[in-house]
């Protein structure tokens, strides 16, 4: 089994420990990763998508064709990459006139968008291609005794029509929960489970308003689940929940700290990865929960 | 309340810009006229929860009313998370997310875009990444990865390809960022 790894910007430059987690976990589960050499930004929402539809799809299509030429699907850990790439694909696949204009642009660089590769998010890919039971058999360490709160992430769910992997009910997502339970975790439910974390364009535009959302979310998690660990399905949510807590504590909005990791980091730890390499850049103190995982 | 205060809340429709609706439809918001202002999108929108003055339903309403300047003078359209809850719940398949993107496209054509977007576009063109941290090489090496990811930053030919693509898009005609041919 082989799949193309789309790294994106934030994972490559802000949280390469998460990139390393993916590069460890997939091969450890028997899935080879292709580098999709020469990939670029997805492009992210504030750039080409905000300029025009065809330009957005053209930059996206160049990335799609790298995977198409190799006959591979694309996996990513970033919700924005997942959303932007899936949406550009959906636009080109459902609007022949957009596809034709994009291919006119791509002709100059000797590429053609065909629409033969699917865009997948890591934990959905593993859920559907391997299944929770196989992952359970493969892990060396388990999350037994750990209570976790989940942050699936907006782009992992909506708009469901553009995604290849679908939840039965996107407002009551189950896949990330099942995957974490397969690793042995107790997953607690909290009221603001599917709320936005506030990362992204909102944080760039108005930090204070963005932090209102992450504050509400963290307090809901703390009061209703009191988790040992937050597990996210998206790299942007990881960055927001991991970096916001220190600032929220300084401004006396919260008085606690909950360690935060992406699902792929937790999975890599369970498969035996070196914690420094796959979680070494966390701002929250993850040492205690990492040790508990390695003992489990 | 003084008459001046009262007047502040009055929308003068004789000043409204009826061309805005067509512009939005041309820039990707094809389903705009399907909107019945039911506000289901607003109920799902993180921007409402965070307290922004404009959000999906109100942005569409302002477009209907031709309030171009009201939308351009406010940063709300740039705070949209592109989360697409609105697209998911809209009973009329308006795709409110795409309408907000179309409003950004209108704004960009009037050079009313935030510095961060200009920087993102420039970084995308120059490096292939909208978010690029020049000092990230050390961090990458620290966790056992090569200094550069296998993207356009490690592959000059791929970057040239991407730049050739971008030069063929609408961005090139807008003159927002310099787009010199690399190596010329």
Automatic annotation (TrEMBL), chain A:
This is Heterodisulfide reductase subunit B. Keywords: Oxidoreductase. Residues 3-85, 148-242 form the Cysteine-rich domain. One of its GO terms (molecular function) is oxidoreductase activity. It holds the Pfam family CCG.
TrEMBL record, chain B:
It comes from the Bacteria. Coiled coil: none annotated. This is CoB--CoM heterodisulfide reductase subunit C. Residues 68-100 form the 4Fe-4S ferredoxin-type domain. One of its GO terms (molecular function) is 4 iron, 4 sulfur cluster binding. The keyword Metal-binding applies. Keywords: 4Fe-4S, Iron, Iron-sulfur, Metal-binding, Oxidoreductase. One of its GO terms (cellular component) is plasma membrane. The keyword Oxidoreductase applies.
